[in-house]
Amino acid sequence: MDNVHDRAALTVTSAAPECAIDNTQRNEREYLWRSADLAPQTVGATLPELQFLDAVVLIGHNLSGAATVTLRVLVDGDVVATVDDISTAEYVPAGVWRAGIDPFGASYNDQLSQPLTIIDVPTIPCTGYELTIDDPDNADGAIEVQRIVAGLGFVSEYGPSWGVDLNWVDPGQQQRSAGRTLRTIGGGQPWRELTVSLDNLTPEDRSRLLIELAQRGIVGDVFVDCYPNRAGPDRLTGAFLARLKGGWGDTHNRLSNYQSKPTFVEV
């Protein structure tokens, strides 16, 4: 819920003009970091104070299925944990892969509007981290990343109830002509909205959500991951950077238990 990357001092191996690494700390989608070439790129982040970390996420990247990412977690410049050569390929799984239609080793990387790569690490304190990205065969001739998220995730003691509601909201409007032709105006770029029913919030879970989520209102970014134990489109379409919609609310429905039904809208 607290993206420590947004407060970090950043360095990078290279950046194309007007595509600085600091753009990974901005919400506007037209801003991104782009490397100057296809040499391996190392993104360095130095945090203003000691923080706990259990995941780093690259959002809106152009990495190919052959790319790899290495994460090094640092304390005062010393490496305390490493996750080596994470593949960015989201392969089409057996049973979904179509013989004669999908190429061998087909991935979803180039089929998603917001490709992302999630790197999980055991919970660890750190004062910084480094990401080394290697994608020498990238067809775009440069490496691009829109946002980077890093921090400590929140998992409630009891998960959401059945009925997780994930909607793709398209702002377009449909109108029929006099000849009954259906026309769509301004559509084709939907965003996601997620509503979850947290029917069994312990006082401890509610306290953390009040401090880290409710008090920030609708301006704080939150990375949501609906199905962390899934793979492929289930995982990727249910994971995105969002903001709380309409604020926080909860109900004290019985002794030592609270209910809440927050909605998150994709930024």
Number of strands: 18
The chain-level structural class is mainly beta
CATH C-level class of the largest domain: Mainly Beta
The number of helices is 2
H/E element sequence:
EEEEEEEEEEEEEHEHEEEE
Average pLDDT level:
90
Number of domains: 2
Percent of residues in helices: under 10%
| CATH homologous superfamily title of the largest domain | Galactose-binding domain-like
How much beta, percentage-wise?
35-45%
Brief summary:
The protein has 267 residues and is mainly β.
Walk me through this protein's architecture.
Strand 10 and strand 11 (182-185) form a beta hairpin. The protein has helices at 203-212, 233-237; strands at 9-12, 33-34, 41-59, 68-75, 78-87, 116-134, 144-145, 147-151, 165-169, 173-176, 182-185, 191-195, 198-201, 221-225, 239-244, 251-254, 257-260, 263-266. The chain is mainly β and 267 residues long.
What are the main properties of this structure?
single chain; 267 residues; mainly beta; Jelly Rolls; 2 domains; six-stranded antiparallel sheet; five-stranded antiparallel sheet; 6% helix; globular
SSE diagram, text form:
Layout: E1 9-12, E2 33-34, E3 41-59, E4 68-75, E5 78-87, E6 116-134, E7 144-145, E8 147-151, E9 165-169, E10 173-176, E11 182-185, E12 191-195, E13 198-201, H1 203-212, E14 221-225, H2 233-237, E15 239-244, E16 251-254, E17 257-260, E18 263-266
Antiparallel strand pairs: 1-3, 2-7, 3-6, 3-8, 4-5, 4-6, 9-12, 10-11, 12-18, 13-17, 14-15, 15-18, 16-17
